[in-house]
Task: structure prediction
Amino acid sequence: SPLVKTSAAAKGAFLSASADLAQANDKNVSQLLSNSEAANASASETDGKLTISVNLTAKNEQTGAQIRKMADGLQALGVLAASHDLPTAADLIKQVQITGEGSKLTATFSHDSKTLLETLQKLDQENKAKAAKNAAAPDAPPQGL
Result:
């Protein structure tokens, strides 16, 4: 089976899923990921850390390298977009570790389980402040990053 085997599912996993992304109902997603064979994701908690892992197997090493570059670029874009108004989101995005070897790629996010709720509440407050700021000045010209 082309599904990536992950050790995260073996220890502390409470959620696990697999998909053939090239068979997605959305034609754009299907076309974008048609060079991948399969993906799986898991969420686990071990030693007080919540870990979310996404594994993807590309059809070959070259495609794997290209998808890795795309994932790195999306992460950088996310940090750049969030850093001004949502610094907590930017910090969370920075914590995602993207690795790849050959045709296999993994993106892993880990966070202390004890502080996760506080972090999400802080993110919610930042998001509400951003929405209030945008509502107060709807016709303001966009500012640069």
Confidence is low (pLDDT under 50) at residues 1-8. The chain is about 40% helix and 30% strand.
